[in-house]
């Protein structure tokens, strides 16, 4: 479902900005530069060949960084609340006009076969109980010779993430505890192969290509 943003007040925008800045500051204090990490991941994804899809956009960090580089991007997430926050963050960054938000599950992408030249999925893997369905869908919508960028936290990154959630009185659930390494072994089953790996800023990144 295409997201149709409601009217927002200046108070809502300001409250969202305050929460964003506070959370980024907490991560930085604990040793994780969230914004540099996202820039690092998107650097791996260069060149950003349109059309681009970001799967599991959450609060929009990757989507917004792609849009900041002048590239239109389609963003999907199953949570209306996460999409609402992502849209507010995009509006604050001045890039909301370059982003098309969809509320949908990554295992049922509403797009044609072979449509996207680049698909990104950042810090989503650890939320999944199984990654095979979403990987099959990404493979389906990825163009021949298209590229797939997968990233998730390192062990150190997860330690920081857990501490942030503890400070907020929450528990960060990781049902499958899959790693980027786990996925890389099964890429050939989905018509993809790993072309590049790198780890920085507590993020492990893999660049794969459709073959």
Can you walk through the features of this model?
The protein has helices spanning about 10-30, 35-45, 60-70, 80-95, 130-140, 155-165, 180-185, and strands spanning about 50-55, 75, 100-105, 115-120, 140-155, 190-200, 205-210. The chain has about 210 residues and is of the alpha/beta class. It has one domain (about 10-210): Vaccinia Virus protein VP39 (Rossmann fold, 3-Layer(aba) Sandwich), CATH 3.40.50.150. The protein has a seven-stranded mixed β-sheet with strand order 3-2-1-4-5-7-6. Strand 6 (about 190-200) and strand 7 form a beta hairpin. Helix 2 (about 35-45) crosses helix 3. The longest helix is centred in the first third of the chain and has 20 residues, at about 10-30. It is globular, with a radius of gyration of 16 Å. The model has no long low-confidence stretch (mean pLDDT about 95).
